[in-house]
Every structure is written in C-alpha cells, then in structure tokens.
Amino acid sequence: MELFRYTRPIGLMGKSKWAIGLSIFLVVASIFTIFTKGLNFGIDFAGGTIIQVKYDGAAPIDAMREKLSGNPMYEGASINEFGSPDEVVIRLKNTSESMTKDIGDVTREELSGTGKFQIRRVDIVGAKVGGELREKGIMALALAFAGILIYVAVRFEWRFAVASVLALLHDLTIAVGAISLLQLEVNLDVIAASLTILGYSINDTIIVFDRIREEITENSAKTLHEIIDDSVTRTLSRTTLTSLTVLMVLVTLFLFGGEIINTFTTTLLVGVVVGTYSSIFVASPLLGILGFDVKRYRAKLSEKAAREAEKEKMRAQFEQGVV
C-alpha cells in the first residue's frame, strides 16, 4: 500500500531552512516554557501521598475539602476529579515518614458523612525514594542517547550519529515543553513515554538514513541534496503509514484509556507527531549542516569494500592451501 507513489523527488531540501527555523522556534519556546512554568513532578519524583476515593454517586468535592481542612495532616492537599465525577484523587505532600496513623484509615474517618465511598488506592513515596527514581530516570534517558549515538556511528558515520541524536533531542525537548505547558504530572509514565519516543523516532530516522546510504552507492552523479530529496520521497509513504497507524492507537487510548494513562498517551502523541516531522525535515538536512561530504563517503565505502574483497581473497587462498 502506498499513499505517495514515487514518480519524482519532492523538493524537501529546498524547504529545509523553513523547517530548521520552525524547529529552532519550537525548541526555544519549549525550553522557555520549561524554565518559566516548570515541571509538575508527581509523587514518583517529588514524594508524597495519593489517595483515590470512589463514591457511589457524584463526589461532593466541596464537602470533602471542608471536612479535610480541619486536619493539619491534609494541609496543602489538592482534591480533584479523577476521570469521572464519582472518583476523586487527594494529593498530599506528606509521606509515611511524617504520619503516625494509616492515612487510608484517617481519610475514611475524616470523610465519614459525605456519602457512601471506598478508598480504592493509597500510594506513598518518600522524598528520598522520589529523588532516586528521578536520578534513575535521567540516567535511563542518558544511556539510551549514548547507545543510539554509538550504534549509528558504527553503522553509518559519526555525522549520521550526531544528526540523529540532535533530532532526538529536538523531539524530546518539544515533548517535555508540551508537558510543561499543559502542566501534566511528570512521573515514571513520562520516562517510559520518552524512551518509547526515542525508539520510535530513531527507527524512522534509520530507515531514511539507510535509503540515503543506498542512494550514495547507487547514484554517483547525484549531490547530497538530490540524494536526500530522493531518499525521503521514497520512504515518505512508509513513514506516513507507520505514523498514522500508531496515532490511531494513541488517539483511542487518549479518548478511552482513562485518567490514569492520560500523561503517558499525551506525551506519546506529541512525540510521535514531532518524531515523524523530524525524521523527514530535521535529521537529513542536518547532514548537510554538519558538513557531510558525499564524495569522501563514497571513497570510504570503496576502501572498505576493497578491504573486504582482499580479506575474502586471502580466506579463499587459505582454504585452498595456497599461501
């Protein structure tokens, strides 16, 4: 199945300046948003307590706030609807280290008289544990970037590796900027979504880079711009179809998955859209900006092929007993 039948290359490189300009604007805007609005760290990273309460009918949020306001344990607590009118989440900065009673039992006592309800979930994370989780999350992202950089540098060339990592940083920065703008809760789900974005985006980029390498070896008369235009055009149908199928799943999860995976799906939605855009308009043009030389790369591939041929010849002679 092809959405775009290849007849001639689309002049994407002619629009690369506009694409790079847009990317720079989005990245700068995202960084500005992150520094001005900050990130809304959840209990996974900041520590605290989450209590999920389900009522038989609509939750009386005002009555709950009035009841809990008299207890110092709930000072600074936020009470918000969770997915449906009958479910509520109470978020506290307090943890088990500062509590002398079971917070679930205390909440049950404090909310008595507000209606029939049940405590569905109590999550408690200490500040120390939250800090460790935050550090491990950052380390996981750093290791993923390092692994991708090494893999692409070995498989292609260092300029391909740098271009792919810069494109991934572009995708992740914009996704985190969207999280900051929407003030979504940053938790382990965001780390999982970010790692998924890296995997998805680098897969798209590698497909394009593979095609660029093939075009370099097959068409010795073409310039880098012509090769990139031809390669991106030939892979455009595959890239678009892959993105659309993934987006269909993500939109379904976003609409019907419920509040508990809202942050995960929103992060992925932004990441997949931006990742698809960057694999077409950002990663490949960066090769030219980084000074990639087609003639030098062809010479390098020729030398490598000659070495492999020589090794194969020596191996054949050794197997035939000729020294």
Global geometry: elongated
The percent range for strand residues is: 5-15%
**Number of helices, where a helix is a run of at least 4 consecutive DSSP H or I residues:** 11
Strand order of the largest sheet: 3-4-2-5
Report helical residue fraction. Answer: 55-70%
Q: Can you tell me the residue ranges where pLDDT is under 50 for at least 5 consecutive residues?
A: none
| Overall pLDDT metric | 80
Cα separation of the termini: 53 Å
Strand count, sense and barrel status of the largest sheet are: 4 strands, antiparallel
Please state the CA-atom Rg, rounded to the nearest Å.
Answer: 27 Å
The number of distinct β-strands equals 6
Structural class of the secondary structure composition?
alpha+beta
The sequence of SSEs as H and E is: HEHEHEEHEHHEHHHHH
Feature tags:
four-stranded antiparallel sheet; 11 helices; two-stranded parallel sheet; alpha+beta; 11% strand; 323 residues
Structure description:
With 323 residues, the protein is α+β, with helices and mostly antiparallel strands. Helices cover 66% and strands 11% of the residues. It is built from eleven helices and six strands. The strands form two sheets. It has a four-stranded antiparallel beta sheet with strand order 3-4-2-5. Strand 3 and strand 4 (84-92) form a beta hairpin. The relative contact order is 0.14. The model has no long low-confidence stretch (mean pLDDT 80).
What's this entry about, in short?
This protein is 66% helix and 11% strand. The chain has helices at residues 16-37, 43-46, 61-68, 103-110, 127-155, 158-182, 188-218, 224-256, 262-281, 283-289, 294-319; strands at residues 40-41, 48-55, 78-82, 84-92, 117-125, 185-186. The N and C termini lie far apart (53 Å).
